[in-house]
Amino acid sequence: MESLSQNGQVQDWIRSALGNRGIDAEKTLYYCKNLYEYARKTKDETLLGFSAYYMGEAYYILNNVDKLFESLSVALAYLDRSGQWELLSRSYNLLAITSANRGNAPLAMDYYLSALSYCEKYHMQDVGIIVNMNIGTLYNRLGEYSQAQQYYEIGYQILCKTKMSPEYFSYLLTYYIGIGNTYLYREFPEKAAYYIQKAEEDCKDRLGKIEEIALCCFKARCYNSMGHTKSRDDCIEQIRGMMEQPMEFLSVFDDLYAYCEMLFLIGKSEDFLAVLSSMEELATKAGITHIRRQLLALKIRYYKVKGETEHYKEAAAQYFELAELMENENRYTVLSMLNIRKSLEETAKQRKAMEEQNRILQKRSETDALTGMYNRFRLNDYAEEAFQRAMRERTPLAVEILDIDYFKQYNDHYGHQAGDDCIRHIADCIRDLMRQSGIFGARYGGDEFILIYEGCTREKVLELALQLRESIINLRLEHSCFPAAEYVTISQGICLDVPREDGKIWDFLHTADGMLYQVKKQQRSNVSIGAFGEKEGTIYGQEPKSDSFV
User: Fold this and answer.
1) What is the structure's pLDDT at 549?
2) Any residues with CB less than 8 A from the CB of 352 and at least 6 apart, and which?
3) Residue 158 and residue 535: Cα distance in Å, rounded?
4) CB-based burial, 430-455: b 16+ in 10 Å, e otherwise
5) Are 108 and 73 found together in one domain?
6) Is 223 part of a structural domain of the chain?
7) What is the pTM of this model?
8) Which of helix, strand or coil describes residue 396?
9) What percent of the chain has pLDDT over 90?
């Protein structure tokens, strides 16, 4: 929200939207709609993504699935373009939950995996916890209990590393109930009961209303499987009171449905019908046909067992009427997914084009136009990084400055075009050496180049420097203005040492420049190498012919 920091009204809306989040969904919607309208007028994509996401989250709490899909479909592209990765992954998570509740498990898994990819890429552990556990819940629903357990364990391992998360106890309970269910579904109630104990020990007085309902439903089913009817009935009594309060129905549907099945099987008809009626009302309000059909199928089973023929026929007719609605709903869900994919693909193309343009601009800003080598801007950054690495690791660093012998005379005699060609030939030789040895090279300006050797011994640096010297001599570029040689040559000055904490990279450059001056004064076309601070180094190469130029 940094782009809007100067707008006091907008900041008030943001604070109010976040302050009411999870407390008053209607107020959250009100402030988010104000934010969205402002963002739409000002074309602020960051705020558009932010406000659309929190509208979707509020609709989730209000069990309004169509509006949730509408809001999140809008939010995704803006969140992606503005780089709000946590909200983007949370959007995919909510879309996955809703798709699963609509009976589209493959689409739900696709959304979950999209959420996980962003969590892993941007190291968002908090969101990764709940997404992994939600995938576990999906596998439990599909009867794949070993897969479910695997994802619950992944979520739990991440959770153990992030105990400071504000939702820690909610996530911990999700893990205990999820793992417990994998045992309960496989008819190992004693193993499942262990997680009741863990939940009561670790999460006591730390849970919200939704978590309390989920835990009570799990306990009732577990106690029932173990034959502890008194403990089970105590849980049923607690749930009876909880069902009278408003709730985030979608977050607790699986728990309530499994609980409702238990009530049916043990013959608790009054409680069964009461819970079923509440769930049907919430499912109708949410507009989720798949859930309505699931509940209706459970009611049909009840009417059949009770022999209530008329009610049975009526419910069966309603069940088949919902089939057409279900088809339309699935079509809408898939269409929403396709629209989201299309929008994100367009965003990805725009980002790729922008990144390519930035890459070109970055390359241009760091590249010498004449030679294609790195220029002084890139040299400054690399040299400082190399110096810090060498100082930290206590390894040798060598900085070389070289220039072309009597280049001004060459340029004046052969012309500027020939001078440019000469510089390009020298650059090609340096690039060949860079490819072979991994050293860094840059054009410093004019006919000067700088090379940086990291972690090389004195012998290796000298070997490479002399190799470069010979490769340039072997070009056989005529240089009639150099009385000591027939061809173009270079002079090289090198500073080799281990950097000190009180030193700077420019100290190395200054020493290397002094070594270069020594070569030019005494024996051009050779290499002088010395340690930091030395005024003269040792000269290597071969004895040149008589040189009348200084």
Assistant:
1) 36
2) none
3) 58
4) beebbeebebbbbbbeebbbbbbbbe
5) no
6) no
7) 0.61
8) coil
9) 59
